[in-house]
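We give this protein:

***
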Amino acid sequence: MKARSNKSHSMRPDELVLFTALLRDSVKFGDKPESALETAMSSPDLSRCADLLSALLTKVRSGETLATAMAAFPDVFPKVYVRAIEAGEKDGDLVPVLDKLCEYTESTHETDANEKLSRIEFDGTVVIYLCMLATLIGVGQLLGTSGITSIGCLTTISTGGTEGESGISLFDVGPIALLIAMGYYLIMRNWDFSENSRFKLEAIKLRLPGFGPIFRAASLSRFSRALGLLLSCGTPKAESLALAAEASGNVPVKRSVSKAVSLAENGEGLSKALEPVRFLGRSFHWMISEASKSGDASRTLLEIASMHEQDMKRRRVSFRGKAFTFAVSTAFLSYVALICLAFGPQFGLPMGGGGG
């Protein structure tokens, strides 16, 4: 099972956006990190994060750098975030880095929110089909049938057994369908999958019609934006690639970028290092190749991230609700067919496949 994080030391994505903005504004006015944290603690919108901010403040007062203090809370501050803060502290000027982090947290929060909605829609579609399948199998057994000949928009059950020997009710299989749906939800939400299992599941999701391009755009947006941020902060290419791959939130992306990390460690340029990563797409490679010539890769990466974010929004609008609606329609038609099979003879309806 997944490990539970300390709720008293937690911060929601929207609160991280606000915290970053407050930190930037305080530092712009000349406050040191200690004073900036005190200002954030006084914000009523961050009252839920009081314990976390107090712990950060204690660490900073004890002599730790802000980046080191944040690194102690990896569930709140991602590695990309901490690395950017570290770069700003080394340069002696946190303002430019915090400006970039404000844009980064806002964009990634919006991307994550859109992807979460797509995942909810996907899970809802899967649950409906699981419930429908359980009902079809259960009713088929109750009817004493020889089996289900097809499952689809129009489901047909071959009636080879006796009719209505015991009080047949479609509601008898309801609890089974509900348990299957609850089991799927609990497993997907709470089970701590191994990296290999996650790789297989996420690879399947990326290939799904409709949903796949949305998940792919979200992963590429996070990867491109994180990579652009780190390179603009002066982080070495190999380290930037490794951290950006992790920030993508997708195991297939992380594994495919590992080749680029090795090439970057051997001294290859960004464009050359990313060439083996076909997952990124031709347009990505072309834009990075052109940007490498002008020496403005970080800006181009942010533009690529924005393009993927717009693509994800467009696909969500065009695809929104279609899969869920199709699943509901399929379930409805299947249940109508089952009701006709179960209760049709009682009302004199002609049922195909029965004997004289």
